[in-house]
Amino acid sequence: MRFLLGTHRPHWLALLDVPLFVSDRTLRRYKTLPVASCDWACDSGGFSQLSQCGTWACGPSPRDYAARIRRYRDEIGRLLWAAPQDHMVEAKILSRTGLDVARHQELTVSNYLELRSLDAELPFIPVLQGQSIEDYHRCADRYEQRGVDLAAAPLVGVGSICRRQHTAEVEGIVRSLAQRGYRLHAFGAKTLGLARYADITASSDSLAWSFAARWQPPLPDCRGHRRCNNCVKFALRWRRKILMTIEKSGNNAAAAV
């Protein structure tokens, strides 16, 4: 499984050699873009966008967003994929938009298709949204009904799982989708969750290290800042712990077999 380290510091793209996950919301402010020394993927920043505005109408248009992704691909380089301007379905977001799960799913599917129609060569991935297992499968069916073969897609994102507290519930969702033959990316999966379903997940990302660092003293060898929430050393150490957890869970699963 490929783990992408989330960062709100886009210049890390030119500094690190580990896969990164960077939001368009941070990159769009850069006039001169970094040249990547690592593979990376681009998030649309949908949760922040909908939390603040309740709609994508006050954000970049699909045409503008596609143009930026094209620029990132060409100028930064090493872009693995980009998320669409999707509509997640956490209760907070539904309350903000005033729409229901089904409408959010339809908007997510439609945006993916629009982005693909603007430039089929850009590496946008389809993203599934839902609350229950049945919701996610209904979302998958929406893609299939509109001619998208998800089983043939290089990657299929699983959204609206990063803020769930019940890892068993998320595991059930991910495993049920994997049974349909999808290569899955789990957006913002928790460490305990990855330990349970990394074996059937193609990739995942997390920025949780930065939130954790806000409540901890700085590392002993960090003397230039009071907290490590923007610290490369802290982020890389946290990443190594994640990879060890994933590796250990894989070994345990192999031993059980």
From TrEMBL:
Instruction: Provide the DeoxyPurine in DNA protein A domain boundaries.
Output: 3-248
Q: At the top level of its lineage, which domain of life is listed?
A: Bacteria
Pfam families membership: DpdA
Q: What is this protein called?
A: DeoxyPurine in DNA protein A domain-containing protein
Species lineage: Bacteria, Bacillati, Actinomycetota, Actinomycetes, Pseudonocardiales
